[in-house]
Amino acid sequence: MTDTNIPQKPECSEELEKQDVEGLIKALIYNTDPQVRQYAAYLLGKAKNPRAIQPLVESLADFDKSVREQATLALSAIGKAAIEPLADAMKEPKWETRYRAAEALGKIADEKAVKPLIQGLKDNRDHVRYMAAKGLRGLGDSDAIEPMIILLKDENYYVRMMAIRALGAIGGKNATDALTAALETETDEKVREAIAESLK
Questions:
Q1: Residue 158 domain-assigned (yes or no)
Q2: Per the domain annotation, does 194 fall within a domain?
Q3: Is position 2 within any domain?
Q4: Is the N end or the C end of the chain the one with fewer CB atoms within 10 Å?
């Protein structure tokens, strides 16, 4: 994790920094101060201990956005060991959890993340579809092309835009053909411009 991901330190930061993984997990789960939970998530990400994965996955549903964001970064820092629990989190009822799980999977950028992210393209929540498409854009896996093509007709402007960028990044004949066809039917001028740019 880079220095840009260091959250604001709570008053008890020195005490937290002395904690072992179990102590940090307790702070992450039980502390009532979101700033403390956020910093605990940050330290767990630095530690990269697999024991922290499940508590961090559960923190993707934290009521505080900063804690959810930091848990996402921590899980992506832990890497491949977090993929399976994150794939399971893509089935959680709370859309915020699915959204953050998709974000972490995209940041991990491993081929094992492709399948759960493809499932995310079919999510009933547009936020999740967008983040799944974004993750797949970075992975560049051709298995994502066919399910991504469906998103070219998504009702959400941002989802369509990300699908265009993803298909442009992945490339190949099927992606190019789909983008060319979408250019003929798309009515939004900004989306049309994005399609044309992706076809260059």
A1: yes
A2: yes
A3: no
A4: C
Q: What is the CATH number of the domain that holds 179?
A: 1.25.10.10
pTM above 0.70, yes or no: yes
Q: How many structural domains comprise the chain?
A: 1
Residue-wise pLDDT tens digits, 29-55: 999 999 999 999 999 999 999 999 999
- CA 23/CA 131 separation, integer angstroms: 32
Residue 171 in any domain: the answer is yes
Give residue 4's pLDDT band: very low, low, confident or very high (50, 70, 90).
Answer: low
| Domain span including residue 137 | 113-199
Residues 6+ apart with CB under 8 A from 61: 68, 92, 94, 96, 97
